[in-house]
Design brief:
226 residues; mainly alpha; Multidrug efflux transporter AcrB transmembrane fold; 7 helices; 74% helix
């Protein structure tokens, strides 16, 4: 819609009150194309920087790029789910949305690191079991902790959503979605990708290499006398 100045905004509010009664203006903002473009660019840079830092951190902590990349794929899954829910529910995208994405990155990676740390500990004990079984055992040992942490966070966010006022509801909504999908992805996405990567590496290691054709024996000189 076109930009409304103060008299036009007042006329709109008067018409709404006459028609419906008891209408109260809570907030009036205008986001132009320049501001919208800046907000989009800031969100992309912030999220990309956060993902890059997480790759470096997990690569250093676990000494493996495999853990870092699978964790980042799980993070992208979380961010896409939160963004999709915002679009599906037609919620306003503003600076608080960027804060939601960065908070989701921090929460999700923390939960994923806990799961990965347990996987590394269990797989390093040289237990006679397949890698998927070891990962499954690791998940079962941290499942209660992940669900308890996520449930506690959801309770606090629910209180913020209903008691914190209208202006903070979008932020609380995004946080709730991020906590739920972050708890899910650390168990069912990141760990599953880690298992698939390990099995793929094993299959490639067992694959026989190309067989070289045997070279014909070199001709031997036969000494003959007269």
């Amino acid at each position: 819609t076109e930009h409304l100045d103060e008299p036009q905004t007042a006329n709109v509010m008067t018409a709404l009150r006459n028609r419906f009664g008891g209408v109260e203006l809570l907030l009036a903002e205008r986001v132009g194309p320049k501001i919208g473009r800046e907000l989009r660019n800031q969100a992309i840079l912030a999220v990309a920087g956060g993902l890059l830092l997480q790759v470096l951190y997990i690569s250093w902590r676990f000494r493996s790029l495999r853990f870092a990349l699978t964790a980042d794929v799980a993070l992208l899954h979380d961010l896409l789910v939160v963004t999709g829910l915002y679009a599906l529910t037609r919620r306003q995208v503003d600076s608080s949305f960027v804060a939601v994405l960065l908070t989701v990155v921090g929460y999700s990676i923390n939960d994923t690191v806990v799961v990965f740390d347990r996987i590394r500990e269990i797989t390093g004990q040289r237990i006679r079991a397949t890698y998927p079984d070891l990962v499954n055992r690791s998940i079962l040992e941290v499942l209660t902790r992940s669900l308890t942490t996520g449930s506690g966070a959801i309770m606090a966010i629910t209180a913020i959503y209903f008691l914190g006022g209208v202006t903070i509801r979008n932020f609380a909504f995004g946080l709730a979605a991020g906590v739920i999908t972050g708890t899910y992805s650390s168990i069912f996405v990141a760990s599953a990708l880690l298992v698939d990567w390990h099995l793929l590496t094993e299959r490639r290691a067992r694959r026989p290499g190309p067989v070289k054709a045997a070279e014909p024996p070199a001709p031997q000189a036969v000494a003959g006398g007269r």
